[in-house]
Write a structure and sequence with these properties.
There is one protein chain. The chain has one domain: P-loop containing nucleotide triphosphate hydrolases (Rossmann fold), CATH 3.40.50.300. Helix 2 packs across helix 3. The longest helix is centred in the middle third of the chain and has 15 residues. Strands 2-3-1-4-5 form a five-stranded parallel beta sheet, with helices on both faces. The protein has about 190 residues and is an alpha/beta fold. Helices cover about 60% and strands about 10% of the residues. The chain is built from ten helices and five strands; from the N terminus they run E-H-E-H-H-H-E-H-E-H-H-H-E-H-H. It starts with a strand and ends with a helix. Bound molecules: adenosine monophosphate (AMP).
Protein backbone atom coordinates (compact mmCIF):
# COMPACT_ATOMS: atom_id res chain seq x y z
CA UNK A 1 0.00 0.00 0.00
CA UNK A 2 1.18 3.49 -0.85
CA UNK A 3 1.63 6.17 1.77
CA UNK A 4 -1.01 8.90 2.01
CA UNK A 5 -0.63 12.48 3.21
CA UNK A 6 -3.93 13.95 4.37
CA UNK A 7 -3.88 17.71 4.18
CA UNK A 8 -6.26 20.54 5.07
CA UNK A 9 -7.08 23.35 7.48
CA UNK A 10 -7.91 22.77 11.16
CA UNK A 11 -11.38 21.20 11.27
CA UNK A 12 -11.31 20.00 7.65
CA UNK A 13 -11.76 16.37 8.78
CA UNK A 14 -8.21 14.99 8.53
CA UNK A 15 -8.69 12.79 11.62
CA UNK A 16 -12.18 11.62 10.62
CA UNK A 17 -11.24 10.63 7.06
CA UNK A 18 -7.94 9.09 8.23
CA UNK A 19 -9.88 6.79 10.55
CA UNK A 20 -12.13 5.69 7.67
CA UNK A 21 -9.15 5.08 5.37
CA UNK A 22 -7.30 3.12 8.08
CA UNK A 23 -10.34 0.88 8.62
CA UNK A 24 -10.84 0.20 4.91
CA UNK A 25 -7.21 -0.22 3.81
CA UNK A 26 -5.58 -1.39 7.09
CA UNK A 27 -2.92 1.28 6.94
CA UNK A 28 -0.76 2.72 9.68
CA UNK A 29 -1.75 6.16 10.97
CA UNK A 30 0.42 8.93 12.39
CA UNK A 31 -1.40 11.98 13.74
CA UNK A 32 1.31 14.35 14.98
CA UNK A 33 -1.33 16.28 16.99
CA UNK A 34 -2.36 13.03 18.75
CA UNK A 35 1.31 12.17 19.42
CA UNK A 36 1.81 15.59 21.05
CA UNK A 37 -1.43 15.41 23.08
CA UNK A 38 -0.38 11.97 24.39
CA UNK A 39 2.97 13.45 25.48
CA UNK A 40 1.17 16.29 27.27
CA UNK A 41 -1.07 13.81 29.06
CA UNK A 42 1.94 11.73 30.10
CA UNK A 43 3.63 14.87 31.47
CA UNK A 44 6.90 14.37 29.53
CA UNK A 45 9.43 17.11 28.72
CA UNK A 46 8.29 17.02 25.09
CA UNK A 47 4.70 17.38 26.33
CA UNK A 48 5.62 20.47 28.34
CA UNK A 49 7.30 22.04 25.31
CA UNK A 50 4.37 21.10 23.06
CA UNK A 51 1.74 22.53 25.39
CA UNK A 52 2.84 26.14 25.11
CA UNK A 53 2.91 26.00 21.30
CA UNK A 54 -0.44 24.19 21.02
CA UNK A 55 -2.18 26.53 23.46
CA UNK A 56 -0.99 29.49 21.39
CA UNK A 57 -2.03 27.93 18.08
CA UNK A 58 1.62 27.95 16.92
CA UNK A 59 3.61 25.23 15.19
CA UNK A 60 6.38 23.38 17.01
CA UNK A 61 9.89 23.75 15.52
CA UNK A 62 10.45 21.76 12.33
CA UNK A 63 13.53 19.84 13.60
CA UNK A 64 11.60 18.54 16.59
CA UNK A 65 8.60 17.49 14.50
CA UNK A 66 10.78 15.78 11.88
CA UNK A 67 12.44 13.62 14.58
CA UNK A 68 9.06 12.72 16.09
CA UNK A 69 7.70 11.80 12.68
CA UNK A 70 10.67 9.62 11.61
CA UNK A 71 10.54 7.81 14.93
CA UNK A 72 6.78 7.16 14.60
CA UNK A 73 7.15 6.00 10.97
CA UNK A 74 9.80 3.44 11.88
CA UNK A 75 7.37 1.73 14.28
CA UNK A 76 5.33 0.43 11.31
CA UNK A 77 6.35 -2.57 9.21
CA UNK A 78 7.96 -1.45 5.92
CA UNK A 79 5.47 -1.49 3.06
CA UNK A 80 2.32 -1.33 5.20
CA UNK A 81 1.51 2.18 4.01
CA UNK A 82 1.05 5.00 6.49
CA UNK A 83 -1.32 7.97 6.58
CA UNK A 84 0.39 11.17 7.63
CA UNK A 85 -2.23 13.30 9.37
CA UNK A 86 -1.13 16.78 10.44
CA UNK A 87 2.34 16.41 8.92
CA UNK A 88 3.90 18.06 6.96
CA UNK A 89 2.71 21.57 7.88
CA UNK A 90 5.63 23.57 6.43
CA UNK A 91 7.75 23.29 3.29
CA UNK A 92 10.89 22.25 5.28
CA UNK A 93 8.80 19.47 6.89
CA UNK A 94 7.63 18.32 3.45
CA UNK A 95 11.18 18.28 2.11
CA UNK A 96 12.35 16.37 5.18
CA UNK A 97 9.52 13.84 4.79
CA UNK A 98 10.42 13.22 1.16
CA UNK A 99 14.08 12.73 2.12
CA UNK A 100 13.30 10.51 5.12
CA UNK A 101 11.13 8.24 2.95
CA UNK A 102 13.68 8.17 0.09
CA UNK A 103 16.38 7.07 2.56
CA UNK A 104 14.16 4.07 3.32
CA UNK A 105 13.42 3.37 -0.36
CA UNK A 106 9.83 4.63 0.02
CA UNK A 107 7.94 7.59 -1.40
CA UNK A 108 5.19 9.99 -0.37
CA UNK A 109 2.52 8.13 -2.32
CA UNK A 110 -0.44 10.45 -2.71
CA UNK A 111 -1.66 13.65 -1.10
CA UNK A 112 -5.34 14.14 -0.31
CA UNK A 113 -6.36 17.77 0.22
CA UNK A 114 -9.66 18.49 2.02
CA UNK A 115 -11.08 21.88 0.99
CA UNK A 116 -13.67 23.34 3.36
CA UNK A 117 -14.88 26.95 3.74
CA UNK A 118 -13.79 28.86 6.83
CA UNK A 119 -17.33 29.40 8.20
CA UNK A 120 -17.93 25.61 8.20
CA UNK A 121 -14.50 25.02 9.79
CA UNK A 122 -15.19 27.47 12.61
CA UNK A 123 -18.60 25.88 13.37
CA UNK A 124 -17.07 22.39 13.42
CA UNK A 125 -14.19 23.40 15.70
CA UNK A 126 -16.48 25.14 18.17
CA UNK A 127 -18.70 22.02 18.24
CA UNK A 128 -15.60 19.81 18.77
CA UNK A 129 -14.64 22.06 21.71
CA UNK A 130 -17.87 21.08 23.44
CA UNK A 131 -17.73 17.39 22.45
CA UNK A 132 -14.01 16.65 23.00
CA UNK A 133 -12.88 19.50 25.24
CA UNK A 134 -9.72 20.27 23.25
CA UNK A 135 -8.09 23.31 24.86
CA UNK A 136 -7.02 24.78 21.51
CA UNK A 137 -10.59 24.69 20.11
CA UNK A 138 -11.60 28.12 21.46
CA UNK A 139 -12.40 30.99 19.15
CA UNK A 140 -9.26 33.00 19.85
CA UNK A 141 -6.85 30.07 19.35
CA UNK A 142 -8.79 28.82 16.31
CA UNK A 143 -8.27 32.21 14.63
CA UNK A 144 -4.52 31.96 15.32
CA UNK A 145 -4.47 28.40 13.93
CA UNK A 146 -6.23 29.60 10.75
CA UNK A 147 -3.66 32.42 10.37
CA UNK A 148 -0.77 29.96 10.82
CA UNK A 149 -2.43 27.61 8.35
CA UNK A 150 -2.73 30.34 5.69
CA UNK A 151 0.81 31.66 6.12
CA UNK A 152 2.83 28.47 6.74
CA UNK A 153 0.83 25.41 5.65
CA UNK A 154 -1.45 26.36 2.71
CA UNK A 155 1.53 27.16 0.41
CA UNK A 156 2.41 23.47 0.63
CA UNK A 157 -0.60 22.63 -1.51
CA UNK A 158 1.25 23.90 -4.60
CA UNK A 159 4.42 22.12 -3.47
CA UNK A 160 2.48 18.82 -3.62
CA UNK A 161 0.95 19.77 -6.96
CA UNK A 162 4.48 20.24 -8.35
CA UNK A 163 5.37 16.80 -6.99
CA UNK A 164 2.44 15.55 -9.09
CA UNK A 165 0.65 13.83 -6.17
CA UNK A 166 -2.08 16.32 -5.14
CA UNK A 167 -5.75 15.23 -5.22
CA UNK A 168 -8.34 17.75 -4.00
CA UNK A 169 -11.77 17.08 -2.48
CA UNK A 170 -14.16 19.97 -1.92
CA UNK A 171 -16.86 19.89 0.74
CA UNK A 172 -18.85 22.52 -1.17
CA UNK A 173 -18.94 20.25 -4.25
CA UNK A 174 -19.25 16.83 -2.64
CA UNK A 175 -21.73 18.00 -0.02
CA UNK A 176 -21.49 15.33 2.70
CA UNK A 177 -19.12 13.02 4.55
CA UNK A 178 -20.43 10.11 2.44
CA UNK A 179 -19.82 12.05 -0.79
CA UNK A 180 -16.30 12.95 0.31
CA UNK A 181 -15.52 9.36 1.30
CA UNK A 182 -16.80 7.89 -1.94
CA UNK A 183 -14.61 10.25 -3.97
CA UNK A 184 -11.57 9.67 -1.73
CA UNK A 185 -11.89 5.86 -1.85
CA UNK A 186 -12.29 5.95 -5.63
CA UNK A 187 -9.08 7.98 -5.98
CA UNK A 188 -7.16 5.70 -3.62
CA UNK A 189 -8.35 2.63 -5.56
CA UNK A 190 -7.25 4.21 -8.84
CA UNK A 191 -3.79 4.94 -7.43
CA UNK A 192 -3.27 1.58 -5.73
P1 LIG B 1 -3.71 18.96 15.12
O1 LIG B 1 -4.32 17.99 16.08
O2 LIG B 1 -3.12 18.30 13.90
O3 LIG B 1 -4.65 20.08 14.76
O4 LIG B 1 -2.46 19.63 15.87
C1 LIG B 1 -2.64 20.38 17.05
C2 LIG B 1 -1.41 21.26 17.31
O5 LIG B 1 -0.22 20.44 17.44
C3 LIG B 1 -1.06 22.25 16.21
O6 LIG B 1 -1.83 23.45 16.30
C4 LIG B 1 0.42 22.49 16.49
O7 LIG B 1 0.61 23.33 17.61
C5 LIG B 1 0.91 21.10 16.87
N1 LIG B 1 1.34 20.32 15.68
C6 LIG B 1 0.76 19.20 15.18
N2 LIG B 1 1.40 18.77 14.09
C7 LIG B 1 2.41 19.65 13.87
C8 LIG B 1 3.41 19.77 12.87
N3 LIG B 1 3.49 18.90 11.85
N4 LIG B 1 4.29 20.81 12.98
C9 LIG B 1 4.24 21.68 13.98
N5 LIG B 1 3.31 21.65 14.95
C10 LIG B 1 2.39 20.63 14.91
Amino acid sequence: MKNIIIFGAPGSGKGTYSDEIVTKYHMGHISTGDVLRAQIKAGTELGKTAQSYIDNGQLLPDELMIDILANAYDQFPAGQGVIFDGFPRTIPQAEALKKMLAERGHDMGMMIELIVGEDVLMQRLLRRAIEQGRADDNEETIKKRFAVYHSQTAPLSDWFAKEGIRHTFSWAELGSKEGMLEAIFKTIDEQA
